[in-house]
Specification:
mainly beta; 4 helices; binds FE2/S2 (inorganic) cluster; binds fe (ii) ion; single chain; four-stranded antiparallel β-sheet
Length: about 350
């Protein structure tokens, strides 16, 4: 029992570093990006995205540095975008190469360009406060199942959460919430571990094993904002048979320091025994169930506050290890700890 003399705990919540995490961030389905310029508000600024005639999506800072017009109101010309106000033309590398009424182009006429990549039919943008090019080892992983006819294709939803992404990150270590948020006290994990190594952080979990049906999941963050989960149900007598196999994708892209766009995608493994119509209905219902379970977390994230000094108990997962790993993406590369690439594993004693 707690001592009555113990003073009440005061929650500490300091603002984090005034920067955004180094890494790839998801911008939704690649098919949504065409030669019609699109406005994006991310990383505390305005951006413009458009697909050039080279087929690539190019992203530049969204306001023209000449006199401030919104470049999304301009038009795409080859691989460049022309400003709607005085017709300056900006190439994908951010250099202005044409001013229709000027004899010389000012040397300063350069705007920031943002690296992009398409993977798994999704578009990603690279953010690095130091302005460096993408780190090859941090490349977005290829998910072959997202291209397979045996799987459903992503069912994605997007929502804005009024919080900092670090609040959602805690979820990776939070073994206790499964019982209470997702299964109403009906029992949670029976095995649970976290593993940090370089830019990856993995949660492994088994639940319900030994009671007939069990669940297995492996969720990995690849960098600060892309989490891929592979999960399935199994008969505990023969765990090699996978039932209701799914892959989940959770991504968060900061709008500013207090809000981010959260995307949640579900890939469902089809059951070859089902007719096409039945399979479609089944996939739809499974995706809805997954979205519903995810929304249970979102409701909490939307209403919680930041706690830098949480009171943790022995049944909690390695929240501090996780937070330390996540902070790495807010440091300059030469500030990364010496053990950044070493594997650290924490198994929760359940
Ligand atoms: S504001 Fe863009 S060309 Fe003048
Ligand atoms: Fe959850």
């Amino acid at each position: 029992m707690n001592s009555q003399k113990q003073k009440p705990h005061i929650i500490v919540a300091e603002p984090g570093p005034d920067r955004y995490a180094r890494g790839w961030h998801c911008l939704g389905l690649a098919s949504e990006y065409t030669d019609k310029p699109k406005t994006l508000d991310y990383f505390g600024t305005r951006l413009v995205a458009y697909r050039g005639e080279d087929g690539e999506v190019h992203i530049l800072d969204g306001y023209c540095p000449h006199m401030g017009a919104n470049l999304s109101d301009g038009c795409v010309e080859g691989n460049a975008i022309r400003c709607p106000f005085h017709f300056w033309r900006w190439q994908p590398d951010g250099i202005c190469d044409d001013i229709p009424y000027a004899k010389r182009i000012p040397q300063k006429a350069v705007i920031k360009h943002w690296p992009t990549i398409e993977e798994n039919n999704l578009l990603f943008i690279w953010n690095d406060p130091e302005g460096n090019e993408p780190i090859p080892e941090q490349r977005v992983p290829h998910i072959a199942d997202s291209f397979s006819d045996d799987w459903s294709g992503y069912h994605m939803i997007k929502m804005t959460v009024n919080s900092h992404p670090r609040e959602l990150m805690d979820n990776m270590a939070d073994v206790a919430h499964f019982s209470y948020v997702h299964s109403r006290g009906a029992g949670g994990a029976t095995e649970f571990s976290n593993e940090a190594e370089g830019h990856c952080y993995t949660q492994r979990m088994r639940s319900g094993m030994g009671k007939g049906m069990g669940n297995v999941s492996r969720a990995t963050y690849h960098g600060p904002s892309i989490m891929e989960t592979h999960m399935w149900g199994c008969n505990s007598e023969d765990p090699s048979i996978k039932i209701n196999e799914q892959r989940l994708l959770v991504t968060h892209t900061p709008i500013d320091q207090n809000s981010f766009d959260l995307r949640f995608g579900v890939l469902i493994k089809k059951d070859p025994a089902m007719t096409e119509g039945l399979s479609r209905m089944w996939v739809e219902s499974q995706a809805q169930m997954s979205h519903g379970a995810f929304n249970q977390d979102v409701e909490i994230w939307n209403r919680k506050v930041q706690v830098d000094n949480p009171i943790l108990c022995d049944g909690d997962g390695p929240v501090n290890m996780l937070r330390k790993w996540f902070q790495n993406f807010y440091l300059d590369v030469d500030q990364l700890p010496a053990n950044y690439h070493e594997k650290r594993v924490h198994v929760v004693d359940l």
